[in-house]
Specification:
The protein has 111 residues and is mainly alpha-helical. The protein is 61% helix and 11% strand. It has two domains: 58 residues, no CATH class; 38 residues, no CATH class. It has a two-stranded antiparallel sheet with strand order 1-2.
């Protein structure tokens, strides 16, 4: 996809996300919300399907971050780094390499 088309798609999907967030915060049914906002249910569900597809593609495009096994010495250490985000928690030993720590934080940031 060329740059202009990808930017257009990004802008369109941003508007669709805003539309979906407005629906969620309204407390209305899809039928009520669509009638009030002049959008057909077919269009609403098409846009929702496209947003979900984008999310799946985003998740599938992440790199797998290798981790090393925890040694007995690391298991017995009370000090650890705890990171929480997006419903995910990880606990890492203090002696973890900066590269792996950085990769773990990047991974959590994309969740």
């Amino acid at each position: 996809m060329d740059t202009i088309e990808s930017i257009k798609t990004e802008i369109r999907h941003k508007k669709w996300r805003e539309m979906y967030e407005a629906y969620l915060s309204s407390g209305q049914t899809v039928t009520e919300w669509c009638a009030e906002n002049g959008i057909s249910k077919k269009t609403f569900y098409y846009r929702l399907r496209q947003l979900r597809k984008d999310m799946i593609e985003t998740v599938e495009s992440h790199d797998i971050v290798p981790i090393t096994a925890v040694t007995e010495q690391q298991k017995n250490t009370d000090a650890s780094i705890k990171i929480h985000g997006s419903g995910i928690s990880i606990e890492l030993p203090v002696e973890i390499s900066p590269e792996i720590l950085s990769a773990a934080i990047r991974g959590l940031r994309t969740c």
